[in-house]
Specification:
CATH architecture of the largest domain: Roll
Helix content: 25-40%
Largest sheet: 18 strands, mixed
Number of strands: 18
Strand content: 25-35%
C-alpha cells in the first residue's frame, strides 16, 4: 500500500510519490514497468502521463527525481514534471515563495523555485547542441545546432534538434493545427536519426515573442504540454532566426514563458503546477493473496441427506462484487463471510494501521497547507 498525489502542469499529469525518507536510495515503491502502465491507464488505472518519485539524493543535491513514462520507460527529465514535483514538495512541507530545490535528475542538477504567484520557475540549465550530446545523427548546421531534412511517410520535413537532458526534434510549420500529429509524431519519435528516440514538436511562429506548438512525447504520445520541449523549441527557433530569446509558447494545455538567457546560456521556464487529488493504492500482492484465499475457501457442507434451503440457494447465487457493492445483503448467510473476516484481520494489523495513520496525517497536513497557502493574509 502506498500513498500518491496527482498533480498537473498545463494538463500534463503525474502521480507523485514521496520516498525522501527511504533508507535505500534506490527505493522505488516496488514499481515495475507493468505496474506503471496499469497505474497510468486512464480507464483501468488512476490515469496519468507518468509517475514521479521524490527520492533521497545520491549526487549531492537536496533530493533526487525519477520519472517514468506511461509506457513504463524512464526518461532523463521532464519540465512539466519537475514543476509538479516542486509544487508537490511545497504542499507537503508547507514551503512559501522563494523556496528553491536542488534536484538531481538523469539530466543533471535542476533548480525549480516557487514564485509569489504560485507558479514555478525552473532553471533548466544550458541546452545541448552537439549531435552526440542529444543524441542524433543529424549534422551540426550553420545555425549552431543539428539540422537536416527527414522523410516521413512520403513527406519531407526540415528539422532542427536540441537537447535539454533529453532529446528533441523541432519542426517549424505554417499551421500546427493542420498537422497529422498521430501520423508524423509517432514515426519521427522512432526515426533512425535519433538512436535514443526523441520527443517531437511542431511549432508555428505567430510573432517573434509568441509561438504555438504541438507535442508528441517519447513514451507517452500526444500530451497537452512538454516543458523541456518548450525550452528546446525556443532554443531551436531562436537559433534559426525565427524568434527572440524570450517568448510565450502556447501548448494545447496552456502557455509557458521561456527565456534563453544570453549571459548564462541557461534556459528558464515559468509555468503553473496544480494539485488534483490524493489517494492510496493497495499492495497488489496483498490484494491478489486475499482474492486467492477467498476463491479457495471451501463451502460449508450440508447435513447428510439434507437439501439446500431456499436461503442457501439464494446465497450461493449472489455475486458479492456487484450485488453487494453497497453492503452485504444477506449477513446471516453470507458466502464471503470467511474472506471478509480475513480482510478485516489484515486491515487491523499493526503495520497497516500505522501506514494508514501516516497516510491520513499526511493528507490532512497537505490539505491544511494548501488551505493556508490559498487563504489571503488577514482574510
Amino acid at each position: 500500500m502506498f500513498q500518491f498525489s496527482k498533480y498537473q502542469g498545463l494538463g500534463n499529469d503525474f502521480l507523485m510519490l514521496d520516498g525522501r525518507q527511504a533508507s535505500d536510495p534506490e527505493f522505488v515503491f516496488g514499481l515495475t514497468p507493468e505496474l506503471i502502465v496499469q497505474l497510468c491507464d486512464r480507464r483501468f488505472g488512476v490515469g496519468g502521463d507518468g509517475v514521479i518519485l521524490a527520492l533521497p539524493p545520491n549526487q549531492g543535491g537536496e533530493l533526487r527525481m525519477r520519472i517514468f513514462n506511461a509506457d513504463g520507460t524512464e526518461p532523463e527529465m521532464c519540465g512539466n514534471g519537475i514543476r509538479c514535483l516542486a509544487r508537490f514538495l511545497a504542499d507537503v512541507d508547507g514551503d512559501g515563495p522563494g523556496r528553491r530545490w536542488q534536484i538531481d535528475t538523469l539530466a543533471g542538477r535542476i533548480v525549480p523555485e516557487l514564485l509569489p504567484d504560485g507558479t514555478i520557475r525552473v532553471d533548466m540549465g544550458a541546452p545541448f547542441l552537439q549531435p552526440e550530446q542529444i543524441p542524433t545523427t543529424l549534422e551540426l548546421g550553420p545555425a549552431g545546432l543539428p539540422m537536416g531534412e527527414l522523410e516521413v511517410d512520403g513527406e519531407l520535413f526540415a528539422v532542427a534538434a536540441a537537447g535539454m537532458g533529453n532529446p528533441h526534434v523541432v519542426i517549424p510549420v505554417d499551421a500546427v493545427d493542420e498537422l497529422d500529429l498521430e501520423r508524423f509524431g509517432s514515426q519521427l519519435e522512432v526515426h533512425p536519426a535519433f538512436p535514443a528516440k526523441t520527443n517531437v514538436h511542431f511549432v508555428q511562429v505567430l510573432q517573434p515573442d509568441h509561438l504555438v506548438m504541438r507535442v508528441w512525447e517519447r513514451g507517452a504520445g500526444p500530451t497537452l504540454a512538454c516543458g523541456t520541449g518548450a525550452c528546446a523549441t525556443l532554443v531551436a527557433c531562436h537559433s534559426l532566426g525565427l524568434s527572440e530569446r524570450r517568448a510565450r509558447l502556447d501548448l494545447p494545455g496552456g502557455p509557458l514563458q521561456i527565456h534563453w538567457d544570453q549571459a548564462s546560456g541557461k534556459v528558464f521556464m515559468d509555468g503553473p503546477a496544480e494539485h488534483v487529488f490524493d489517494g492510496v493504492i493497495p499492495d497488489p500482492e496483498e490484494v491478489a493473496a486475499a482474492r486467492r484465499a477467498a476463491a479457495a475457501e471451501p463451502a460449508a457442507p450440508s447435513s447428510p441427506g439434507s437439501h439446500p434451503t431456499p436461503a442457501e440457494d439464494a446465497a450461493a447465487e449472489i455475486d458479492c462484487s456487484s450485488v453487494c457493492a453497497n453492503g452485504c445483503i444477506r449477513p446471516e448467510n453470507c458466502p464471503s463471510q470467511a474472506a471478509r473476516a480475513r480482510v478485516a484481520a489484515l486491515l487491523n494489523s499493526t503495520s497497516l494501521d500505522d501506514l494508514v495513520t501516516l497516510a491520513t496525517n499526511s493528507l490532512e497536513s497537505r490539505t491544511r497547507a494548501r488551505f493556508e497557502r490559498d487563504t489571503p493574509l488577514g482574510g
